[in-house]
């Protein structure tokens, strides 16, 4: 598409074989970007890249340098969860989840930032779990760590004109959330002011906005896209109880 908000820009998306990553890649393409969709599971139009492997990132950087000469956007979307609780999680579980959710974005920024001209943008995909307590401890700690990485990267890359922002999805219908117990979905809906779960198409407009020049003075920011889940600090049940006729 000519004339889209991302026309002429080359954007890399990780974890783009399915879920939010696939939707983001499609939306970015609709806005005119040349999208390099990557995933540990290769698929049609998806280049194989395991975000935990520095060699994979080095190969991708070589390819981008040869093919395009520059990269203007990176969406660090790939992520995994592991639902072990505090009393059962192992050091290996922690390392495995952090390798994908924290080291992956770090390696991506380290390898692609040198190819980014001023005006480029990185979007890190955090989670509502990064804004609250959340029961899967390996996942929660990894997403909190990603917030720190995002802030540091925004600080260090800002002088080069590269922006780094973080989005925090709440419960979004994908294969990741489909693998959770039904009670997880139901309790999320109960705690979400908008009273429902979200779709991948409600996340992608925010990613497009943060990658394009409409957000040219926004960096180091964190934006929830969660139906209000993390906005109320746990008081929704109090509000709901009083609405249910228990008085004021
Ligand atoms: N779905 C939600 O409700 C939700 C909520 C908050 C945050 N998130 C975050 O959004 C992002 C996308 O999640 P999703 O729901 O689309 O999940 P998903 O499981 O449907 O997709 C994740 C993708 O990442 C890929 N991936 C996993 N490990 C990888 C690796 N080492 N290297 C490259 N790719 C790898 C998978 O193959 C898969 O295609 C993740 O970072 C996730 O933590 C999801």
From TrEMBL:
It comes from the Bacteria. GO terms for molecular function: oxidoreductase activity. Belongs to the short-chain dehydrogenases/reductases (SDR) family. Keywords: Oxidoreductase. This is SDR family NAD(P)-dependent oxidoreductase. Coiled coil: none annotated. InterPro entries: NAD(P)-bd_dom_sf, SDR_fam. The keyword Oxidoreductase applies. Its EC number is 1.1.1.-.
